[in-house]
Amino acid sequence: MNSYRIPEMAQKYMEYDMITKHTDLPHFPDYRARLLYAFLSKHSTFSNYSELFTLVTTLVQMGLDTHDMVSINNNVKEMRASRSRQLKVLAGDYFSGRFYYLLSHAGHIQLIGIISNAICEANRLKMNLYQLMKQLKMSADDYIKQTVEVKTQLFMAFAGFMEESVHGVWPEILRLFTQCEVLMQEINRSETAQQYRDGWGYWHIMQQASKEEKKHLQAEETDPSKLRSIWLKYKITPQLYQMLNASMKQLQDKLQTLDSKELGKELLQIGEPFMRYLSTPKAMEEI
């Protein structure tokens, strides 16, 4: 069986001078890609297509995530920012378009339809998420749940491709891995106070904050020191570490129920970065 090399294969489609020089790209969805590859590579029928199916799915995900990075501010006039915005749109379209080409040339026309439907569902869920945010009707718990749901849609589309022995556990394992991934990103966000309005901490505080604190959070320009004091008051980072620790324990318990010990061991290795993250002095202090 070939070793996992999806990121290297994807670089062929992502490393263009015009893109890398003028714009940033989102993080590669490596945990979800590794999961899909691990499950498909054990399949008696689809093992020979595990690389192709995983590659096209991650390229589509990169396309969707790249589009999410496009600024909605139409007043940007500075040349570099405008070019970066345009290239994000084009790069997202290009990444998404590659899956049509690769699958059609390999003769997997049915899968094009399956992934296309998953793209539509992911975008529908994303619009619902944005609408709730805009209306300030989002709870902190719903933010995590819906973010995970959006991020898993493309990969969840392969549920019907799984062997019968793992068909029932695929959705839950995918959800738990993605939840750990989201929580780890939220911890990094909380520690740097970057894009705080989009994160779990913001919605958690908005549920409990005083009128004055809410006003400060919603202001166009915020005082970083005041923002940090609010973050510390509501213990945002410690709570996120505790949530990640709880999710990781759920994941470990779920993996122990797998009939295939080989697959279980491989999935535990995929989750090792979460364990290393939780074993740092900072995490141990917060947990």
Description:
This protein folds into 2 domains: 1-161, Up-down Bundle (Four Helix Bundle (Hemerythrin (Met), subunit A)); 168-287, no CATH class. The protein contains 16 helices and no strands. The model has no long low-confidence stretch (mean pLDDT 87). It is mainly alpha-helical and 287 residues long. The longest helix has 28 residues, at 79-106.
Q: Given the C-alpha coordinates, what overall shape results?
A: globular
| Distinct helical segment count | 16
Number of strands: 0
Order of SSEs, N→C?
Answer: HHHHHHHHHHHHHHHH
- The residue ranges in which pLDDT falls below 50 over 5 or more consecutive positions are none
Structural class: mainly alpha
Distance between the termini: 39 Å
Give the mean pLDDT. 87
In percent, how helical is the residue content?
Answer: over 70%
Strand content: under 5%
Major β-sheet profile: none
How many discrete structural domains? 2
**CATH architecture classification of the largest domain:** Up-down Bundle
| Rg measurement, Å | 20 Å
CATH topology of the largest domain: Four Helix Bundle (Hemerythrin (Met), subunit A)
What is the CATH domain class of the largest domain?
Mainly Alpha
InterPro entries: HEPPP_synth_su1
Protein name: Heptaprenyl diphosphate synthase
GO biological process, one term: menaquinone biosynthetic process
Pfam families: HEPPP_synt_1
